[in-house]
Amino acid sequence: MVSVAARRPRVTGRRYRSVTLGALGLIGFGLVLEVAPRIGVVPIDFAPPTSQILVTLVEQLDQGSFWTALLRTLTTWASGLAIAVVAGAVIGVLLGSLPILRAATATTIEFLRPIPSVALIPLVIVLYGTTPRSTITLVVYAAFWQMLIQVMHGVADVDPVALDTARSFRLGPWAKVRYVVWPSALPYVMTGLRLAAAVALILTITGELVIGSPGLGKEIDTAQQSNEVRTVYALILVTGVLGVLINLVIRRGERALLSWHPANRAEKGAA
């Protein structure tokens, strides 16, 4: 049997190797984008080399307007995601716990869920104009379904034996949700949060880009209309970095929150 002390270096080594390989892959991708325009594979006027994009990015970091746009994007993203997560979790628990209610709403959910959020852009512009409220509405609509479906599946996947035990102890509805349903559904909740966060970021940038609400998306559109190609690529790079950072933060929180889960324990043991 491998001791905990002996296991830690192996886990650290695997993580270090994973980070190293990821960094090497990113550097390789950057080199391809550096060389391709310079040798004429793609037109350099419309696909600037990586070095030029990074120089423009550094210039953007020195401008107050960039940080203002970034803050507005993060505020819109966080606001829409928070509303979607809370609403999806509450409604998901209700629908998952009440089969009759789930059956009554199944058709409505399957009708509304496939509707692309971008199809609602004309409607939200009429309702709220080119304000952040319009973009938040799109974010909520798109992220809500990611959370709702995962929570419903999580509640439906609760061990029947655990539910029978809760009934034998005469737990009330709230106590049952708190001590039995929610802990069992938590892995699904975290998956829903991770998916919703990614979708929310996509819709935030899309809403700002198309609707014109303040944020990085609007800055990208402004740069494109001004023919500032390098600025467009630099801001797109920022949105990609945001997506990676958000995913890393949520995954780290997921591992910390679900350290008790058998899947995490098995992964640590295998490491």
Walk me through this protein's architecture.
- By secondary structure, the chain is an all-alpha fold.
- It has one domain: MetI-like (MetI-like fold, Orthogonal Bundle).
- It is built from 11 helices and no strands.
- The protein has helices at 4-38, 50-61, 64-97, 99-112, 121-128, 132-156, 160-168, 173-211, 216-225, 229-257, 262-270.
- Helix 8 packs parallel to helix 9.
- 27% of the residues are buried.
- The mean pLDDT is 86.
SSE order = HHHHHHHHHHH
Mean pLDDT: 86
Count of distinct strands? 0
How many discrete domains? 1
Could you state the CATH homologous superfamily?
MetI-like
- Rg measurement, Å: 23 Å
- Level-2 CATH architecture: Orthogonal Bundle
Proportion of helical residues: over 70%
Oligomer type: single chain
N/C terminus separation: 13 Å
Question: How would you describe the shape?
Answer: globular
Task: Return residue spans where pLDDT drops below 50 for at least 5 consecutive residues.
Answer: none
Task: Specify the CATH class.
Answer: Mainly Alpha
What's the helix and strand layout?
Blueprint lengths: L3 H35 L11 H12 L2 H34 L1 H14 L8 H8 L3 H25 L3 H9 L4 H39 L4 H10 L3 H29 L4 H9 L1
Task: Provide keyphrases for this structure.
single chain; 271 residues; mainly alpha; MetI-like fold
In short:
The protein is built from 11 helices and no strands.
